[in-house]
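pasting HNH nuclease domain-containing protein for the record, 118 residues
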Amino acid sequence: MKKELIEYPVNHLQAKQNALIRDNFRCVLSGAVDQSSCLINEEIQAQVRAQSLMILATQCCHIFPEFNNTSVSDDAQLDYATKAWAVLKDFGHPEIEHELAGDGVHSLTNILTLDAGG
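structre below
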């Protein structure tokens, strides 16, 4: 199955599409195949049948959540975001806050495909 990555994803849906392509339409932990992708793609269906793969709904999960770099109005979220960035800086990675700013939060370096449970 040939799909193209969106070079600069700007929303959650585009980030999920990129992560699914990168992760071969599977959860990175369980190996379960993404249910929606399986329903619409015959090549994935053939892989599932040939390898007896599990099929589950998957989710696009941010390692660092979106609210860490968008306008935060809640004091608790602001406190959390401030502490999260401080920890990264303390561990020698001050650049991550800049890299994940704005739409950068949807970068493949900040996204995992995980199954929704079953």
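Residues 1-63+111-118 form one domain.
The beta strands are 33-34, 55-56, 58-62, 111-115.
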